[in-house]
Design a protein that fits this description.
Layout: H1 4-12, H2 23-43, H3 53-59, H4 63-76, H5 78-83, H6 90-95, H7 107-110, E1 112-117, E2 119-120, H8 131-136, E3 152-161, E4 165-174, E5 184-187, H9 198-204, E6 208-210, E7 213-215, E8 222-227, E9 230-238, E10 249-255, E11 258-262, E12 270-274, E13 278-284, E14 292-293, E15 300-301, E16 304-311, E17 316-322, E18 331-337, E19 345-353, E20 356-363, E21 372-379, E22 387-394
Antiparallel strand pairs: 1-3, 2-13, 3-4, 4-9, 5-8, 5-11, 6-7, 6-10, 8-9, 10-13, 11-12, 14-16, 15-16, 16-17, 17-20, 18-21, 19-20, 21-22
Helix pairs in contact: 1-4, 2-4
Protein name: DUF4179 domain-containing protein
């Protein structure tokens, strides 16, 4: 009869690109698999009757079988495999939540796996970091008793970068149950006065510096709860304003003023400060081969000019210009795949060039096999949304 503990240790010591699991992580993973497989067994009992479930039930009482089972769990339940702590992919998990800024089912395939653990000390901050961040280390802001950072680990797990966006996946883990009562973890930075520099604001609000140039985050960092010990977050950085070299970029991200959040359903959510300053340093290069530039017929329609359409695994970017409109007409962009599915917009930037408005719109990623998109503009000021302009865009494959 084999020894469960010895087999578990041997499996955990197998050569792998990932860091070995700690005893705590292995124990938590084992419990999670047992719980999830138990639910699957109950839900599929009639379908699997007579096909060996009683045998599996006996075998699953050993911890070693859990590790063996993980090799095949993705085959019968890929959603379960994605949701498992430690082994799951951040982008896949975030993409299944109710709200993600830019939806894409392709990020996991093209993202680079990483295992970069953040430094957790005020000394890890750059010299020009705002002094208010060090003051926040004392836990003066927020409500409730501050929790201490020595039990928490912030790890960079995934990195994706094309010519348009840098996107990173983070995992915040706790060694104890101190985060179990929170619904989410976000940041609550102090307000900066008008003398604050862009670098100071960038450091406080979850921005990144690329070769020393600040690039702001699209949204405030928010860690979604995966289980009582694990919270995951995706940070998205638009590279439109970045002017440096996109190869071998030295990236620095600092997160401070974290708070655990409890949503009561009424009134403001309750916040508890999580003391600590987390500094991440890594190198990243934009993959220029991921961008597919669309082709379409030239010309303007009703004062609207389509300038470019770029499709990447992470997002779709449509650049267009609009001349001054008459009679209260207000053009609105719509993008559809060949089967009629809509790519939902997430962000739009506007500039003025000689009286003409130029827009750079970001939408959900087009499917990787999409060979054609329909770019349409309608008048959003009319209830019947009359068509103003339309182009058929061909994407290379």
């Amino acid at each position: 009869m084999y020894k469960d503990h010895d087999l578990m240790e041997q499996l955990n010591d197998l050569s792998s690109a990932d860091m070995p699991l700690t005893g705590t992580e292995l124990s938590r993973l084992t419990k999670t698999v047992l719980k999830q497989v138990g639910r699957e067994q109950k839900r599929k009992k009639s379908r699997h009757a007579g096909r060996g479930w009683p045998v599996w039930s006996r075998v699953l009482t050993s911890g070693a079988a859990c590790v063996l089972l993980l090799a095949g769990v993705n085959g019968f339940n890929p959603a379960l495999a994605e949701s498992l702590p430690v082994l799951g992919d951040v982008f896949a998990y975030i993409n299944r939540l109710d709200k993600a800024q830019l939806q894409s089912g392709q990020l996991d395939e093209y993202a680079r796996q990483a295992q970069v653990q953040a430094q957790n000390a005020p000394e890890s901050l750059p010299e020009d970091a705002p002094k208010v961040m060090a003051a926040q280390q004392d836990g003066d802001a927020g409500t409730g008793d501050a929790l201490h950072p020595e039990n928490y680990t912030l790890t960079l797990r995934q990195i994706y970068c094309d010519e348009l966006y840098l996107r990173v996946g983070l995992v915040l883990t706790a060694e104890d149950d101190s985060l179990a009562g929170f619904d989410a973890v976000t940041i609550d930075p102090p307000l900066l006065d008008e003398t604050a520099t862009e670098a100071e604001a960038n450091a406080l609000y979850g921005g990144v510096t690329l070769n020393g140039q600040p690039v702001s985050c699209d949204m405030l960092p928010r860690f979604s709860k995966q289980d009582d010990h694990t919270f995951v977050c995706e940070l998205d950085y638009d590279l439109a304003g970045y002017t440096g070299n996109t190869q071998d970029m030295q990236a620095e991200i600092t997160l401070s003023d974290l708070v655990g959040v409890v949503y009561s359903g009424e009134g403001e959510p309750q916040q508890t400060p999580l003391n600590g300053i987390y500094a991440l340093s890594f190198t990243v290069s934009a993959n220029e081969t991921l961008t597919r530039m669309g082709t379409f017929s030239a010309g303007s329609q009703n004062g609207i000019t389509l300038q470019s359409v770029a499709a990447t695994p992470g997002e779709t970017c449509v650049t267009y210009s609009v001349a001054p409109q008459e009679n209260g007409v207000s053009p609105a962009l719509q993008v559809f795949t060949a089967d009629g599915a809509s790519l939902e917009p997430a962000k739009e930037l506007r500039t003025e060039e000689g009286g003409t408005s130029v827009f750079r719109a970001y939408l959900d990623a087009a499917p990787e096999d999409a060979a054609e998109l329909t770019v349409r503009f309608v008048d959003k000021n009319r209830e019947d949304l009359p068509l103003l302009a339309e182009w058929t865009v061909t994407l290379p494959r």
